[in-house]
């Protein structure tokens, strides 16, 4: 049994409560990150590595908040999902039968064009990160990419939200610079693109068009790292 099983039934409510301070909904946050992924694959450093219909794995999918938007933004793509919480995966199975659920202990024969880790790494203990990331590297196609989205350790509001979230009680936040070192020196990835994101709350979503201009400024609520094998 995973420790996250106990959060599955009330996951959305807990996340909404945590985000209330920012006046941003859990659904908007999930959609924003999938749109960011789409932009990175279409216009960013991962452009040449994206196929017309990439096979995408949502690693650490939770109860599947991002999955409807992955299906929407990548029509024709095969979407896979996995999580250590079996209770969460049962919710995904019931609500999104078009998503393929796979075991969190990935088989090396399973290969993906894109692996998304959206606010997952801080839930993994520092001692376990290298092994998991090395395994994910083995599960990427030669021209595939890993996209990591994490909480910005420099943003005081982000740190406050994390500290007040019951699901993050054991979280180990990691900075962008440390993730880059971990991926490149520790796991053999090549860093293709990095940037800060989530600058504006949902009421100011019209301003997200400025995100590409602001991505080097460490004020966003989160950040992203694109890496290739």
Automatic annotation (TrEMBL):
Keywords of this entry: Transferase
Protein name, as recorded: Unannotated protein
Record bears the keyword Ubl conjugation: no
Organism placement in taxonomy: unclassified sequences, metagenomes, ecological metagenomes
Signal peptide: none
Domain Methyltransferase type: residue ranges: 57-146
InterPro entries membership: Methyltransf_12, SAM-dependent_MTases_sf
Keyword Transferase among record annotations: yes
Pfam families from the UniProt entry: Methyltransf_12 (PF08242)
GO molecular function: transferase activity
């Amino acid at each position: 049994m995973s420790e996250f099983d106990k959060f599955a039934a009330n996951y959305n409510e807990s996340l909404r409560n945590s985000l209330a301070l920012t006046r941003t909904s859990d659904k908007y946050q999930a959609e924003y990150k999938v749109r960011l992924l789409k932009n990175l694959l279409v216009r960013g450093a991962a452009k040449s590595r994206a196929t017309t219909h990439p096979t995408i794995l949502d690693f650490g999918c939770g109860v599947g908040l991002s999955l409807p938007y992955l299906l929407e933004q990548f029509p024709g793509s095969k979407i896979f999902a996995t999580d250590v919480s079996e209770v969460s995966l049962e919710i995904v199975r019931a609500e999104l039968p078009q998503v393929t659920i796979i075991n969190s202990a990935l088989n090396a024969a399973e290969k993906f064009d894109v692996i998304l880790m959206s606010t997952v790494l801080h839930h993994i203990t520092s001692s376990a990160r290298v092994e998991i990331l090395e395994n994910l590297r083995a599960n990427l196609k030669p021209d595939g990419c890993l996209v990591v989205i994490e909480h910005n350790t420099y943003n005081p509001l982000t740190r406050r939200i994390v500290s007040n979230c019951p699901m993050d009680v054991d979280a180990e936040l990691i900075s962008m610079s440390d993730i880059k070192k971990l991926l490149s020196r520790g796991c053999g990835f090549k860093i293709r693109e990095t940037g800060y994101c989530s600058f504006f709350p949902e009421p100011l979503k019209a301003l997200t068009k400025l995100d590409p201009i602001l991505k080097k400024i460490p004020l966003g609520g989160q950040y992203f790292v694109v890496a290739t094998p």
